[in-house]
Amino acid sequence: MHNTATESDLAVRLTDVTFVYPGSEEPVLKGASLAIERGSFTAIIGGNGCGKSTLCKLFNGLIPHYYVGDFSGEVEICGQPANTQNVAELSRMVGYVYQDFDNQLVRPTVLDEAMFAPLNYGLPDYRVMGLQALEMCGLTHLQDRYIWELSGGQKHLLALAGALSLSPDILVVDEPVSQLDPQHARQVYEVLRSLNEHYGKTVIVIEHHTEFIADYCKEVCLMENGQVLWQLPVADGLNRLDDLARLSIQPPEVTQAAVHLSSLLRKENGAASHDQQDWPEDADGRGLSSPPESAKCMPGLHPDNAPRLGQDEVRYPVTTDEAVAYFSGMLGGRADLPGAHSSSEASGGHSRPGSRLTESGPEDAQARPIVEFKQARLSYRTIRRAEREVLRGINLSLYEGERIALVGNNGAGKSSLLRLIAGIAKPSAGAVEVMGEDTKHQSIEQLSSHVSYVFQNPEDMFIEDNVYKEVAHCLKSRAYPDAEQRISQMLESFRLESLKDRDARLLSGGQQRRVSLAIGAAVLPHLILLDEPTANLDLATREELLGTLQDLEGFVRTVVIATHDMQLVQQWATRVIVLTDGTVAGDGSAADIFADHHLISRAGLAPTQIMDTASRLDLHLTGSTPAEFAQLVHAILTGKEVPHHAACPQLA
C-alpha cells in the first residue's frame, strides 16, 4: 500500500501481520499492512469477521501480549516497535473504547471513572488529568453523578473520557454508534471530531454506518479476508462501489440515490446495455435493501451503472451538503419554488402526535393479547435514596402475530419494558401478564418456556467454552427430545457451523450477535424479545437476521425488538411503539409514526440523509428510500412530474 508519510509522521504502521486465535486453524489477519498518519481521522470498514477488531487490538498490544495466538509481522506505534512494550505501556499511547463500553466503566461516579487510569498508574496529578478528560468530552457538569444514572450516550462519552485520561496520541473507538439513538450518536461523533481537530488526536473508528464516515472521517480503510484492501480519502473510498457491493457494505443513502438516478438517466438515453440487470422490488414497490444471492451487489448499484475511479472525474455525493449541490445542479432551479409545507400538510393533515392503535389491537377482534401491561410502573431507589421511576403507568396490549418495534432515545425505558415482559424485573405497581399469567407469580425459569430474551450485549449470554455448547445449553439442560436437530438448525441458520468450536467471547462483535440470536431462538419460544439485535452487524448479517425472523414466524407468536435501526423498523415492523421518558408517546403504524415530526424529535431520532436532502431541496418525497428519491428527481428532470414541496420527515 502506497503511503508517502515518513516514519515520524505515522501513528500506526503494520507490516505483513498474520494472526491466528488460539483454538482456530484459520488466520484472522493474513499479511495485513497499514500506515495511518498522525492526526488522521480514519474509519476501518469491512464485513463481520474480516478482522477489523483484531487489527485494532494490535495497536494497544492486546495482540500478541494478551491474546497469545500465532503471531507474525511488525507493528509500530508512534514510531516505536510494539513488541518491545507491554499493554500498560502501550495504553499510555493508545486509548481504546470497546463495543461493549459499559464493561469499561468500573468506578461508581463519573469523576472516579475519568481519573481511574492515571490514579492506577500512580500519577500525582491524576485528578487534574481526569477533569481534563471530562472537559474534552463535555462531561464536567456530571462529575459527581453515579454511573448508573447516566444515559447510554453519556456512558459512551465517559468511556471516551476514561480512555483519554492518560493523554494518548491515538484513540480507537470500536463501533461508536451501534447502541445509541441518532441524537446521541451524532453527539459522540462531534466529540471525536473535536478531539481530532482541536486536540490533535489520531482517531480510528471501526464503523458500519457510512453516513457517519462521510460526515466526520478523513480517510477510510477497507478490510477483506484479513487484509487491508485499500486506504483512501473518504469521498474516493465510498465511491468504490464495486468493492462495497461485493462486501455488502451500504454506501451513504445519497450515494445510492445518485447511482439510481444515473441508471435511470442512462436508460432514458438508451445507454444501458441489453443485459443490464434491473434490481427487484419487494411487495411494496421498494428496492430491496440487499440483492439476491446471485447478484452480490447493492440495490441499484450495478457495477455498469457507476463511474469507475480513475476512468473519469465523476464522483457521487457522500454527504448531504454534497447531495444538495449535486441534485440542485441537475435540477437547474426546477425545485427552486416557494418554501416547504409542514410535515402534517405533506401527509394530508392526518399526522397526529402519539397516534395509537384501537383498544382492540389488531383488526381481528378474536385475537387475544399475548402480553398485557396494566398501569405498569417500574422504579428503583438510587444510592442517594431517591426514588427513580423508569416506566410510568404503561398500558399496552401486544397480540399474537405482531412484529413490534420499540423505539425511543437512550434511557426512554425500552430495555426496562422488555425486562418486565421476561420477568427479569417485576412491576413496582400495576401488572404485567404474559400468556394470561401475572408475571409477579411466575419465576424467570417458568416464563422462559414462553419468552426468550436476547440481551443487548451478546457476551452477557455466554457461559460455555464454545459456540456449540452455548446454543445447546438450554436445550440439553431441559432435555428437549430434538435437541441435536435444533442445534444443527440454529448453527446453519446463523452461519455458525465453522465457528462451533470457537469460544464465543473471542469472536467478532457481529459473530457474537449471531451466537446470541441462535441461543434465543433455539427453544422456539412463543415470544422473543430482541434488544438492539442489529447493533454491530454488517448489512449481509442484518439481512440474514431478517430472513431468520421470517423463518421463525411459524413458531414464534410475537416478536418485540427494541431498536434504533429505523431501516429495520421500516422493513419488518407491523407496529411501532415510541417510548419517551418512561411513557408511551406514540403507538401505530410506521407510516403514522414517521409522519409526526414533533414526535420523532422528542424521541431522540433524526431525519435520514435522503429526507434531509429532499427537505433542503423543497421536494415533497412521499417515500423514504434512495430509489424513490431518484425516481422523483428523474420524473422532474424528464418533465413527467412537477415538483411538489414539503419534506416528510423520516427516521434515521
Automatic annotation (TrEMBL):
GO terms for molecular function: ATP binding; ATP hydrolysis activity; ATPase-coupled transmembrane transporter activity. Transmembrane segments: none annotated. It is a peripheral membrane protein. PROSITE patterns: ABC_TRANSPORTER_1, ABC_TRANSPORTER_2. One of its GO terms (cellular component) is ATP-binding cassette (ABC) transporter complex. It is found in: Cell membrane. InterPro entries: AAA+_ATPase, ABC_transporter-like_ATP-bd, ABC_transporter-like_CS, ABC_transpr_CbiO/EcfA_su, ECF_ABC_transporter_ATP-bd, P-loop_NTPase. Gene3D superfamilies: P-loop containing nucleotide triphosphate hydrolases. Residues 339-350 have a biased composition (Low complexity). Residues 269-311, 337-368 are annotated as: Disordered. Keywords: ATP-binding, Cell membrane, Membrane, Nucleotide-binding, Translocase, Transport. Residues 12-250, 373-606 form the ABC transporter domain. The keyword ATP-binding applies. SUPFAM superfamilies: P-loop containing nucleoside triphosphate hydrolases. The keyword rRNA processing does not apply. It holds the Pfam family ABC_tran. Belongs to the ABC transporter superfamily. This is ABC transporter. It comes from Paenibacillus campinasensis.
